[in-house]
Amino acid sequence: MNIRRGVNVMKRSRPFDEDFYRVLANSSQAGVYILQDGIFQFVNPHIREYAGYTEAEMLGMDSLSLIHPVDRMSARKNAIRMLKGQRLSPYEFRIITGDGRTKWILETVTSIRYGGRPAVLGNSMNITEQKEARNRLEEIEALESSILDAIPHAVIGLHNRVFIFANNAVKAVFGWRSEELIGKNVWILYRNEGDSREISDLFYTALERQRTFHCEFPCRRKDGEDIICMIRASRIGETLSERRIVATYEDITERIRAEKELEHSRQELRNLSTHQQTVREEERTRIAREIHDELGQTLTALKMDLAWLRNHLPDGRKPLHAKVRQMSELAGRTIETVHRIATELRPGLLDDLGLTAAIEWQAGDFQNRSGIACSTVLAAEDLELDRDLATALFRIFQETLTNVARHAGATRVEVKLERSEDRIVLTVADDGRGITKSQSEDDRAFGIIGMRERAHLWGGELRITGSRQEGTRVTVDIPLRLSKVAIRRGQGGAPEEKCP
To answer: Which residue in 112, 131, 209, 417 is deepest, having the highest Cβ count within 10 Å?
Structure first.
């Protein structure tokens, strides 16, 4: 410190000039004091300012009483070592100011003579702000370190693809200790250098345009095991000019394996559902045919016999004529019932004339039974579809009309069937009370669940929207080109995007 060097020069050049020293000390920007027998003999304005005492209060004060009790022993020890030439660097300690506050002091001491007697010259600085700033920085660094270590994913910092930091979780994810990675190239986290260049080029290119980027990519552990990681990267700074990024690596290998197993299980259930629906439709068709052919023909023959019997009864047997007439009418109603049951089981129109005719007939039958006006716009009159797909769309349409009759409170239904080059879309809209989102997503709404599943099996989508003002709209959208592939492979949804 300047005062100390100046005093040493004065001591070597001429007898100590106390008046000159006082001028020098009072003009110093540091706190300067003189002790004899541990008692303040001189204090300049700066030390009085940060100590919080007047000159009269400090002169005659024991210097150790100013020091924080915890630091008194170490401060005294460091001062003695410096006076003996055993310590050259300044030392730190705390003081208790006159108003009770704690401040940090940086100090050096040297031996002088004052008033003809040995004395100690102290040169000190108030470093409280610097100390607090340093402590805050250390706390921030410790907090950052704790946060990084609390993250279960590997977190790394890269500069030009070289590790500059890594958290402890890299051990769990990759098998490397963080200190082993510092200074190494990031390619050691991948299967080969080609993969490393590919993902690095992808990240750096993306981060030139945006702040963050993420994707899934294959990686390799230290022990050679290949894993799949979800990698999320962010550039450090507003631009990528310094090519520094921070990235997290989450091992999602088990999750992907579980997702594949779950999807496989779901697909098995869908295949089973498809098989059951096919078997059910075949059984419906068989029963409908047998009812129509066997029971229908028998009842028709019975009605013909009753007509013959009525024609051969004597005219005078009125009770018998009335009884035969009643039996003939009952047989006629039974024939109609059989025909209705057979049609509900499997509409012959669906097999004979196709989906368009079956929808038109079903809409008319629904209107006659429910009293709800049902209009149709069937733009796909010459539609030729796979038999199973036509069945799926017709069953969805039947279930939709059932829901309208039971729940909508509607007075009108509009049906539209459209076909483009590669899609077929069926829309059913009513003017009822409107279905709510919670109702359409209710896991107990088995009718809607069945409709969605039928659409999904063909790679399609079922959308249901509703409002009190506009009623409910059900839209079934089936991609024709993908439908056969979807039912065979069970890939109704779009594939998830991965990194290259």
So the answer is: 417
